[in-house]
Amino acid sequence: MSPEKMVYMTNQIATYFKTQADPDRAGKIADHLSDFWEPRMLEKLYAHVDSGGAGMDPLVVEAAQRVRRAKAA
Amino acid sequence: MKDFILPPLNDRDMGTPTKQGAPITLTIDGFAVTVPEGTSVMRAAAEAGLQIPKLCASDNLEAFGSCRLCVVEIEGRRGTPASCTTPVVEGMVVRTQTQHIKKIRKGVMELYISDHPLDCLTCAANNDCELQDMAGMVGLRDVRYIAPANAPLANHFMRQNTSGEANPQWLPKDETNPYFTYDPAKCIVCSRCVRACEEVQGTFALTIEGRGFDSRVSFGAKTDTALASDCVSCGACVQACPTGTLQENSVIELGTPERAVVTTCAYCGVGCSFKAELNGDELVRMVPYKNGKANRGHSCVKGRFAYGYANHKDRILNPMIRDQITDPWREVSWTEAMEFTATRLRALQAKYGQKSIGVITSSRCTNEETYLVQKLARAVFGNNNTDTCARVCHSPTGYGLGQTFGTSAGTQDFDSVEHTDVVIVIGANPTDGHPVFASRLKKRMRKGAKLIVIDPRRIDLVKSAHIKAAHHLPLRPGTNVAVVTALSHVIVTEGLMDEAFIRDRCDWDEFQDYAAFVSDLRHSPEATALLTGVDANELRAAARLFATGGNGAIYYGLGVTEHSQGSTTVMAIANLAMLTGNIGRNGVGVNPLRGQNNVQGSCDMGSFPHELPGYRHVKFPEVRKIYEDAWGITIDPEPGLRIPNMLDAAVDGTFKGLYCQGEDILQSDPDTKHVAAGLAAMECVIVHDLFLNETANYAHVFLPGSSFLEKDGTFTNAERRINRVRKVMAPKNGYGDWEVTQLLANAMNGNWTYTHPSQIMDEIAATTPSFAGVNYDMLDAKGSVQWPCNDDNPDGTPLMHVDGFVRGKGRFIVTEYIATDEKTGPRFPLLLTTGRILSQYNVGAQTRRTDNVIWHDQDLLEIHPHDAEVRGVKDGDYIKLASRSGETTLRATITDRVSPGVVYTTFHHPDTQANVITTDFTDWATNCPEYKVTAVQVSPSNGPTEWQTDYNTQAEQSRRILPAAE
Ligand code: SF4
Ligand code: SF4
Ligand code: SF4
Ligand code: FES
Asked: Which residue has the higher pLDDT, B755 or B4?
C-alpha cells in the first residue's frame, strides 16, 4: 500500500467521524482502525506518523498513537 | 455416513389459490369440510381429498371458468356451476359425480379431443399431460365429431387435408426460444399461459387473439415470435400449460423425468426452491417448487433454464499445477496437486511469515464450504486472512445496519411485500437482478401499492406493462446520501415522522441531534437539487408519500453500497425507516437485495477477516475460546487482510499465497490492472472453480470445482432463509468442494474428518448462537428456516426487531454527504455506472456457457442521445471508454434510459473488462469498492485497445494445457 493511499484511506475515515457529534472523535477513529486494520497496515501507519505524518489529518495522527499504545499494552 | 430421507413432495394442484377468512363448513359428496371464506368449491373438495376434473384452473392463478369441465351440482341451486369460480357458502351441499355432471364432462372432453391431435405416444408431454389425465378421469371412450375429410378443415392440428390442401387454421411451431417450444396445434386455449404471464410473472407478453374457434395464443403482435416478444423466458407459462403446447425443449429431447429432488437455485440472492427432475442422474428439467418460501412456485430464466454450464465442454475435471504462470498447465492426480500446494504454502509461510497467505471464500458455494474455507485460514494457516466477495458488494450493509440496528440482517421475509403499501427501491434493478422478487413486487403494485424508484437509470420498474412508479428520482451517481438525507429532511421539517415509534424504540437524545442536523436547510431538496439532479418537488412528494402512505418498505442493492459513502447511505436508509416507524412488522423494513445466491451465508459463516462465524469480532477472547476449544488451536486476536489489502500487501511483497474458491477476482474486482499486479506478485495462487476463469491466468494450482447439483449443503438467501442444496448427481470432478478444502487442510496436517456436510452444519450450530437450532433433519422436516434459529426462536425468525432492536434502542446517525473524489472534469466529463441484466449473472462464467447468450452476447454502453451526438457516436458503433485507470472498447447503444452526463454498462463479458475502467476508490468504512461511479470519456474507436489485445494474448498463453502424462 502506497503512503498516499494509506493517507487517503485514513483521512476518509476521519472525514466521516468529523461529521459525528462525538466528544472523542480520535477515540472513534482509533476504535475503527483497531477493529478493521491488519497489523502490517497499522505498522505502516505508525511509520508514517513517526516520519511526520505528512498529509494526514491530525485526528488520525492522534488516533494512530492511541491504537499503538493500546495494542502494545 | 448418514442417509437423509427426502421429505414427501406435497405439491398437488389444489385448483384455485388459498384464501384467508372465517371458517365455512360445507358437505361435498357426503364429506364435511371446513375452509376459509372465499375458497372455491373446487379447492374445498381438494382439501377434502376429492379431485374435481379441471383444465383451465390452477392454484397459482385466479379462477377463470372457461373450460366447464369442473361443473358440480349444488343442492338448492339451478344448473351446474363451475366449481372453480363458485365460492363456498355455509351449509352448502355439493355433489361432484352425478350422472348429469358426468355426461356434461364427457361432452366437454369430446369437444376438446376432437380438435386435438391423437399422437399421445410420440408427444413430449405423454404421461405429463392434464388433457390426457382428464380424458381418462371422465372416462372418455369415443369421439363422435370427426372433421370432414375435405377442406375447410374444422380443426387446428392437421397441416393439410387428404387432398394435400393446406389447412388455414394450422400454425407452425415457434421454436425461437432456446428453452421451450410453442406448438399451436396442441393448444386448447385454456389461457392458463396468458394468465401465468400476467398474474405470476407480470410481463404481459402473451395474449389470446381472435374469438371463438379462431382464438389463438399469441406472443404480442401477430408477427412476434417468442424470442422477439417481451417474453423474459421465466417459464411460468410452460409450467402452467396443461398440454404439450408449451413444452421445455429439454423434455422434448430427453423424455419425461421419473424422479424429483428439491434443491435451491445457485444464481441470485432470492434463493428460489426448485425440483430438479431427473432420469437416473440425467437432469431433465428444473421446475420451481411450489412450497419454496422465497419463490412460491415462480422462477426466472437463470434458475429455470440456465443450468447447462455444468456440462459445458470448458469445464475442467482434473487438478492442474504449474511452476510459473508462464508455463502451460499440467494435469496431475489429486494427491500430487495437494502435495504440491501444501508444500508451497508451508514454504511461503516459513519464508515470509505465518500471515503471508490467505483465502477468499465464495458467495456461490454452500455455507458448509464457506465455513471450511475460513476455518482453513484460521485453524490451519493460523491467521485471519479470510475475506469474501461480499467485500465488494454488501460489506457496507454489515457495517451500516450493525451501527444503527445492531445486526446486519435484512429485516423481513419476501412474503412481507404482500403487505406493503409504499416501496422505495434504491440502487437496485429487481426485474433484472432479483427477478422473482420483482414479480412479487409487481403483483403487489397491481393491487395498489405505490413505488418510489431512486436510480440514475429509468429501470423497468419505473414503467412497464400495468405498473408505473409514483415517483422516479433520477439522481446523479454518487449522491445517494444527499438524496436520502433530503427525504428525511422533508419528513422531519414537515413533522411527518412517527414520534411514538421513535420515543418508544429509539434513543431519543440521539434522535434530537439527528433531527437538528437533518433539519438544516442545506439538506433540503431545494438546496441539494443542483448537486443531485433530482427535482425538489418530486423529492418532497416522494418523502410525503413514504411517510404517510401506510406500510413503507425499502429495498436496496449494490447501487447503494458500492460507493465511497456506501456505509453512510445504508445508515441513512436505516434512519429513514426508523423515522417513519417502518420496522418490526409485516410489510415494512430495510431489505438489502443480496447479489449472489449465498452472499448472506458467506458473511454469516465468518468469511470476514475481523469476524468469526455469527458476526463476532476476533478481538473478544470469549468468542475465540469457543473455536479454540472446538478446533484445538489458538486464534489470532488481530483482524486479517481484506481483499484490497491482500492485493496491496502482495504488491508490497508481504502477501504471497492465496486460495480462492469459486470467485473470479480478476474479472469482478475493480481496477483490473491493480488486481493483476497483485496476483502476479504472488507465488502460489490456487483457483478452485468450475472453469479456467480470468483469475486462473495468474494461478499456479487449479482445483476443479463441483456444481450445486453435485453436492449437499445449504444456501442462505437475502431473507436469511437457510435452504437445502441437495446432491442429485455425483460430482463430475470426483469431489464436492467441501471435500476439496478438506483434502487441502489435511495435506497441511489439519486432521479433518468430515464425511458429510451435515456434520459441518452441526459444528456451525454448536459454535454459533444464531444457528444453534439448525440441522439437516430439521431443514428436511421444515423445508427451510430463517436465522436466528435457536431455543428462543425454534422456528426461525421471519421478522427482525419485532419488540425492540437487536442492539436495544435504535440509533439515529448523522449522515453528512461527502462528495466522492472521483469527479468529472474536462478530460473525463461523463459518469459511468454499472449493473447487470436478467439473462446473465455476475461475471457470466456460468450464464455465458448456456443458451442465455442469445439475449446478451456482449456488454453494451448505454449513452444518452445528446451525449452520443456531440461525440459523433451512432447506435451500434464501437466506442472507446476511458477513465483515469484505463480504457477499453465496446459497442454503444443510444437510449434515454440514462440521463445526459451518465453512461451505463454491464460487466458480464471478460472481453469488455469493464473493470479496467473502475478506480480503486472504496467505501470509507469497509473498503467496498466504488464500482458505481467512475468519471469517463467516450470517443469513437475502430477496435480493441492495446490492453484488451495484450490481455487476450496473455490469457490465451496462460490457458494452455499439456496433454496428460502417460
Ligand atoms: S416465459 Fe414467462 S415471460 Fe415468457 S411468455 Fe411465458 S410467462 Fe410470459
Ligand atoms: S398454450 Fe397451453 S396454457 Fe396456453 S392456452 Fe394453450 S393449452 Fe392453455
Ligand atoms: S436466479 Fe434468482 S430469481 Fe432466478 S431462479 Fe435463481 S434464485 Fe430465483
Ligand atoms: S376448471 Fe373450472 S371452468 Fe375450467
From this structure: B755
Q: What radius of gyration, in Å, describes the C-alpha atoms of chain B?
A: 29
CA B916, CA B519: separation in Å to the nearest integer? Answer: 41
The total number of structural domains in chain A stands at 1
Task: Tell me which chain A residues have a C-beta less than 8 angstroms from the C-beta of B814.
Answer: 19-21
Quote the ligand 4 centre to B830 CA distance (angstroms).
57
Min distance B839 CA to chain A CA atoms (Å): 37
- In this predicted structure, the answer to whether residue B60 has a pLDDT above a threshold of 50 is yes
Model confidence band, residue B1 (pLDDT cutoffs 50, 70, 90): very low
Q: How far apart are CA B966 and CA B960, in angstroms?
A: 18
Nearest CA of chain B to the CA of A15: how many Å? Answer: 8
Q: Answer yes or no: are the C-beta atoms of B191 and B435 closer than 8 Å.
A: no
Task: Give the C-alpha separation, B387 to B722, whole Å.
Answer: 21
Amino acid at A2: S
Q: How far apart are CA B575 and CA B552, in angstroms?
A: 13
Whether the CB-CB separation of B421 and B551 falls below 8 Å is answered with yes
Please determine, for residue B151, whether its predicted confidence score (pLDDT) is greater than 50: no
pLDDT for B645-697, tens place per residue? Answer: 999 999 999 999 999 998 888 887 777 788 899 999 999 999 999 988 889 99
What residue type is assigned to position B239 of the chain? Q
Cis check for the bond before B148: say yes or no (omega within 30 of 0). no
For residue B948, with 0-12 CB atoms within 10 Å meaning exposed, 13-18 middle and 19 or more buried, which class applies? buried
pLDDT < 50 positions in chain A: none
Q: Mean pLDDT in chain B?
A: 88
- Mean of pLDDT values over B384-406: 82
Query: Is residue A8 within a helix (H) or strand (E), and if so which, with residue range?
Result: helix A3-18
Nearest CA to ligand 1 atom 2: B234
Over residues B304-310, the mean pLDDT reads 86
The domain in which residue A24 lies consists of: 3-72
- Candidates B611, B694, B609, B616; CA nearest to B644 is B609
Instruction: Give the pLDDT band (50/70/90) at residue B392.
Output: low
Q: Which region among B105-109, B153-157, B475-479 has the lowest average model confidence (pLDDT)?
A: B153-157
Tens digit of each residue's pLDDT (9 = 90 or more) over B419-436: 999 999 998 889 888 999
CB B99 within 8 A of CB B93: no
Cell of B903: 453512461
Distance CA B363, CA B365 (A): 6
> Are the C-beta atoms of residues B864 and B870 closer than 8 Å to each other?
no
Cα dihedral B325, B326, B329, B335 sign: negative
d(CA B658, CA B641): 12
Interval B34-61 mean pLDDT = 94
Cα(B143) to ligand 4 centroid in Å equals 21
Domains of chain B are: 23-122 (3.10.20.740), 320-392+598-758 (3.40.50.740), 395-592 (3.40.228.10), 830-958 (2.40.40.20)
| pTM attached to this predicted model | 0.89
CA gap B229, B222 in Å, rounded:
10
Mean pLDDT of B2-15: 65
pLDDT digit string (tens) for B467-501? 899 899 999 888 999 999 999 999 999 999 999 99
Rounded CA-CA distance B852/B265 in Å is 16
Mutate to test the pocket of ligand 2, among B66, B113, B187 (most ligand atoms within 8 A of CB): B187
Per DSSP, the residues of B672-735 read HHHHHHHHHT-SEEEEEESS--SGGGG-SEEEE---GGG--EEEE-TT-EEEEE---S--TTSS
Is the distance from the beta carbon of residue B302 to the nearest atom of ligand 3 less than 6 Å? yes
Beta strands in B799-926 (DSSP E): 830-835, 860-863, 878-882, 887-894, 902-906
